[in-house]
Amino acid sequence: MIQTMADAVITIFGGTGFLGSALVKRLLTEGYRVRVAVRDPDKAKTLLDEEHSGRIEAVSADVRDRGSVAKALTEAAAAVNAVGHYVEHKGASFHDIHVRGAENLAREASRAGVTRLIHLSGIGAELGSASRYIRARAEGELAVKDAFPGATLFRLSVVFGPGDALFRSLANMVRRLPAIPLFGRGETLLQPVYVMDVADAAVAALQRTEAKGMLYELGGPKAYSYRALVEFVGKELHRKRVLIPLPFLFWETAAALLGVMPSPPLTRDQVALLKQDNIVNPSRPGLKDLGIEPTSLEKVVPLYLA
């Protein structure tokens, strides 16, 4: 448990991403000293405001490079792996980032004497998945637990909040298209979790001894079909759209054709993800076990969709 906040340094890997930046801001409001470890420290400039001057710094680190990871962990009391990598490219495969990189971070954290490590993963992480991304997430969890047995694992459902990928994408489609294509019949279930609830969960896990070595699955208070989320966005934007179910074979073919692009708008792994429900296992501990009441998307999303 980390109680002496004035002296505790928390290193956040991936601290400039959507989720990582929310966590950085939350830790700063709690009085911690935060070290943002990213490949390009210049991207952290927006986080280095005068209000928190002296309690936040940005350093260069790449989870694929153990030397840079070790330096970023110097004198840190805790670390969070919030590195997100969703599209593979040369030199940065899912295995490079989510397995080898996660293991590097965990091993160096152990060697540095870091007392707490939080590793962010995804719901549905399974070794037998058809998705390379999901398999890498599962392998990464095992590698982290082997290198740092006391690590706290967070498996997240899709995360929402201002600037998120999910509702931003849906809103763009609703605004621009007269008809919205659905993945299959749009029946895949998602349980969106509010970004600040995840940030609060991380703070709670750092402060609770009982969270050490635990696996939590974090989702919102309600599960929605993909179709229902599209309809919700349409209603909020006052645009009624025709919804067109398209078989997954269509999407798999489209993803294969688009895969030749440097940054494809759709990948096979994304299609694989949308084939299976992304909801929490009710038998696993979650937000409420960390003292957090999940925030409904109806309370937050309308505030930034307009």
What would you note in describing this structure?
This protein is an alpha/beta fold and 306 residues long. It has a domain at 9-158 and 192-219 and 280-292: 3-Layer(aba) Sandwich (Rossmann fold). Helices cover 38% and strands 18% of the residues. It is built from 10 helices and 13 strands. The chain starts with 8 loop residues before the first strand and ends with a helix.
Per DSSP E runs of 2 or more residues, the count of β-strands stands at: 13
Average pLDDT figure: 92
State the major sheet. Answer: 7 strands, parallel
CATH class descriptor of the domain at 9-158 and 192-219 and 280-292: Alpha Beta
The percentage helix is: 25-40%
What is the CA-CA span between the terminal residues?
Answer: 41 Å
Biggest sheet strand line-up: 3-2-1-4-5-6-11
Assembly type of the chains comes to single chain
By CATH, the architecture of the domain at 9-158 and 192-219 and 280-292 is named 3-Layer(aba) Sandwich
**Uncertain residue ranges:** none
By secondary-structure content and strand pairing, the structural class works out as: alpha/beta
By CATH, the topology of the domain at 9-158 and 192-219 and 280-292 is: Rossmann fold
Instruction: Please identify which CATH superfamily of the domain at 9-158 and 192-219 and 280-292 we are dealing with.
Output: NAD(P)-binding Rossmann-like Domain
Order of helices and strands: EHEEHEHEHEEHEEEHEEHEHHH
Strand fraction: 15-25%
| SS summary, helix count | 10
Overall outline: globular
| Rg over CA atoms | 19 Å
